[in-house]
Amino acid sequence: MLVQRIFQQSLRRATFQQPGAFSRNALRKIAAPTSIATSHHQIQSRHAATQGLKQDDAYQILAKQRLNRPVSPHLAIYRPQITWYLSILNRITGSVLSGGFYIFGFSYLVAPLFGWHLESASMAAAFGSLPMLAKVGLKFGVALPFTFHSFNGIRHLVWDMGRELSNKAVQNTGWTVVGISVASAGILAYL
User: Fold this and answer.
1) Rounded Cα gap, residues 185 and 63, in angstroms
2) CA-CA-CA-CA torsion sign (188, 100, 120, 128)
3) From CA 22, how far away is CA 38, in angstroms rounded?
4) How far is it, in rounded angstroms, from Cα 22 to Cα 11?
5) pLDDT per position in the chain (191 positions), as tens?
């Protein structure tokens, strides 16, 4: 579009400066598109042939065409990498944490209507009655998604600053996040 405007402006300027130099015969010799536009050459055109199809027939044609399309590579042909697992796990832990907070918050609000006892005293008493192994396991299960999502979020903030972006650094920071998450979740579980 810009090229066409520049071409038109330059033709107008040239015509203004030398009116007799740009007659119809001169324009045919200067540029092929101009000579095509003066209809001395036939422009080739091809009309599309269409046919009316029922929806089922059109679907059958589409299904046959899909069988001939190449299949894109699937995850099964690639070697699994820690970045895959941590990316998926980061999304899952974020969903679990936010979903858990929303569900508990909603349950806490409607508990008086249904007669549920979700106040702090009854929850502390219920948690206190559990065996020690169940307490540690429950606390570890709650702490691990929180610590992993937090430390992996810090890892992403480091990436946003443009650091630790080489393949080796990404793998090292990934394993570091896993180790720190498990260790800190274990410490929080035994508190």
Assistant:
1) 51
2) negative
3) 14
4) 8
5) 677 778 777 777 776 666 555 555 555 555 555 545 555 556 667 777 777 788 888 888 889 888 888 777 776 777 888 998 999 999 999 999 999 999 999 999 999 999 998 888 999 999 999 999 999 999 999 999 999 999 999 999 999 999 999 999 999 999 999 999 999 999 999 98
The alpha carbon of 142 is separated from its chain's Cα centroid by a whole number of angstroms, namely: 28
Q: Cα separation of 73 and 13, whole Å?
A: 57
Task: Tell me the C-alpha to C-alpha distance, in Å, between residue 98 and each of 7, 39, 68, 118, 155.
Answer: 60, 69, 43, 19, 20
Maximum alpha-carbon separation in the chain: 105
According to the 3-state scheme, what is the secondary structure of 107-125?
Answer: HHHHHHHHCCCCCHHHHHH
pTM for the whole structure: 0.60
**C-alpha distances in Å from residue 16, one per residue of 12, 20, 37, 47, 171:** 6, 9, 21, 41, 68
Alpha carbon distance 68, 71 (integer Å):
9
